[in-house]
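Troubleshooting: if your tokenizer reports a length mismatch, compare your output against this known-good record of 231 residues.
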Amino acid sequence: MNYIWLLNGAAAPSHFEIARFRSKRLAECADELFSQLVHHLHEMGEIAFEHFFVDGTKLEANANKYSFIWKKSTNKYEARLDAKLEKLLPELCSKYGIVAADPSALLSSLEEKADFPFVHGRGNRKSELQRDIEELRELLGRKQKYRGYNEILKGRNSFSKTDPDATFMHMKEDHMRNAQLKPGYNVHIRLFLQGNRMLLSEWQLRISTNGESFFFCPFCFFASFYPSVLI
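Known-good structure output:
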């Protein structure tokens, strides 16, 4: 490993031990542990916080390349849906003599009027009320889906259905030479300039494991197992 010299001759931990540490212990304390490490170096006079440099790279995610959801498309389709609901609401209210402030309230009122079983399949003719209820259910279901997409996006332009943490972007390696957007992550590193030395300040990589996300920093691992090397 790149930081093997921190062990001072001690036996290196096995990859099983590192894996257990990352999955069971590091997820909850990595950010706080690294923050304490930086503040400790500042108190020792090793970091002055005068100048810093930021660099980053891209890592391709293990996600389907065709599972993209785009923010612009979501907003466009949601706007069309809102316009359709806005037009449909007064029509159905006038048609069935219902006063409703929003489509959800209208759907509840229509379902109360439906005192007959719904029919499906070939040879069964749906009533006009059933068709209107099903159309309204379908529109409200799409509305809920678009809201869920916007909650996942949170300011991003895209995400992957199979890995919502991943964002579609151009990768450095483009073997097909077609500038295809692929799901991936941005990794950033920040270095402080102290005299003629470059000191690591921050290295953040968002990793998703079993639905949980955490930040991993290699210094946090050694600071936990071998705190004596820091003083």
